């Protein structure tokens, strides 16, 4: 059990790294900040007698003058700990707007390519309890449903890799304490406090939220509950899908009366699942999916026909049935 303060202990680390047990190759993403420096220290200790290959990588996004030195500092620490380290540089054109998003996409692409090169099966990042709380707040602001409010998952798939976030329940203060206890310094990324970024603005307002009881711990509890609820809803959708959806490679048909009788969240997810199956994979704003869901229900209730497109799929109501198929190219959208 994590202690209220102080460095993360070896026993705690063993429990946190449980998802990595039995892995043959682990790649740790280490930016050089306090969180990922602590991750590297803890992983180095934990992996020493486990016969797995631990490697670390730092992405130099080339966006700040000091990023090269920060990567070199991580490399030096890795050398000291006897861990293979590579600095991966984000080269090529960089967009003027949405730079954070572009940097993130490039970062994971570089990490995945490097993981494939070294044969790592697990990618480990140092997202903390505080990062989870910020994610939940940002998703609240975006009007997310249960899946979004579940925040980041401790273990998820990322391409062929398993992405593990072992520190998701650990407050940043304890990771700072872990570095301090080891006498290891870390780099402070100035952009973490840059008010141009939503995360930084949220961080700056955390004191106010804490005073109102919206603490990181409570937001993380909300995320865990939402994750459980989301699993339950998805399981219900699996069951209903098996019984109701007549689904082939070209289209999915669902009886209209049965569809109308479903709890709305299940019906919505059924429709979106079929859109995902027959569409072109373009992500659609949930708001558009919800608007179309309402239109589908209205049409079924009124015994009318309907034909729209969503995410590259054609969503039609015809003869009392909901029919979702691949949309012909270049049709009008909702
Ligand atoms: N430049 C980097 N090099 C290597 N790893 C990094 C780098 N930046 C971030 N990471 C990894 O990602 C974790 C989360 O970092 P941060 O919170 O800054 O990213 P984010 O963009 O907010 O989150 P996400 O990775 O989910 O997009 C870090 O703890 C570290 O493990």
From TrEMBL:
Keywords: ATP-binding, Cytoplasm, Ligase, Nucleotide-binding, tRNA processing. It is an enzyme of class 6 (ligase). It catalyses: cytidine(34) in tRNA(Ile2) + L-lysine + ATP = lysidine(34) in tRNA(Ile2) + AMP + diphosphate + H(+). Pfam families: ATP_bind_3 (PF01171). It is found in: Cytoplasm. Its EC number is 6.3.4.19. ATP binds at residues 31-36. Residues 26-204 form the tRNA(Ile)-lysidine/2-thiocytidine synthase N-terminal domain. It comes from the Bacteria. GO terms for molecular function: tRNA(Ile)-lysidine synthase activity. Its main location: cytoplasm. HAMAP family: tRNA_Ile_lys_synt (MF_01161). The N-terminal region contains the highly conserved SGGXDS motif, predicted to be a P-loop motif involved in ATP binding. PANTHER family: TRNA(ILE)-LYSIDINE SYNTHASE-RELATED. Ligates lysine onto the cytidine present at position 34 of the AUA codon-specific tRNA(Ile) that contains the anticodon CAU, in an ATP-dependent manner. Cytidine is converted to lysidine, thus changing the amino acid specificity of the tRNA from methionine to isoleucine. Belongs to the tRNA(Ile)-lysidine synthase family. This is tRNA(Ile)-lysidine synthase. The lineage of its organism: Bacteria, Pseudomonadati, Pseudomonadota, Alphaproteobacteria, Hyphomicrobiales.
